[in-house]
Amino acid sequence: MTKTRHERLAIGAMYTGLGLTVVATVAPYVDRATTHLLADHIQAGYPAYTQTRVDSAVTTYLVLLSVIGALGVIAWLWTIRAVKAGKRWARPAATVMFVVGTSVGLIGLLTKDTSGDTGLPSALGWAGMAPFPVALLAVTLLWRRPRPA
């Protein structure tokens, strides 16, 4: 089946979003091995926590963010496959995935924990929002009508 220019561009944007989702999923592991932003953020919010408790909280966040990232990767791959196959439900499904993904990203970025600060340091929260612009582009392209010849 021949794809419209908008569909081809949307698929390219979706592959970019997939890549950004993988980067956002790996970012907390890179942080744990290098800068320790998450551990420092938890320690600052809960100064009474021992190092063992901070490490446990970091591990819990890593598991949670890994599951969210894996679900995001699955959603991207499923949506890309649906668009490539020309499924009638691909556009609404992509839109739903966009809304869900954006909501999850905003929750990670903005939700405050019991310390009164956000649960994630802003750098990791914004990393979770990295796929948003290309996801918006992909959904916009999918809903655009081809120009009449």
**What's the helical proportion of residues?**
over 70%
Class based on secondary structure composition and strand pairing:
mainly alpha
Q: What pattern of helices and strands is seen along the backbone?
A: HHHHHH
Number of strands: 0
Binned strand content: under 5%
- Distance N terminus to C terminus? 18 Å
Would you identify the regions where 5 or more consecutive residues have pLDDT less than 50?
none
User: What kind of sheet is the major sheet?
Assistant: none
**Rounded average pLDDT:** 94
Shape: elongated
What's the alpha carbon Rg, rounded to whole Å? 18 Å
Total DSSP helices? 6
Description:
With 149 residues, the protein is mainly α. Helix content is 75%, strand content 0%. The protein contains six helices and no strands. The protein has helices at residues 5-33, 37-45, 51-84, 90-110, 122-128, 132-143. Helix 1 (5-33) runs antiparallel to helix 3, helix 2 (37-45) packs across helix 3 (51-84) and helix 4 packs antiparallel against helix 6. It is elongated.
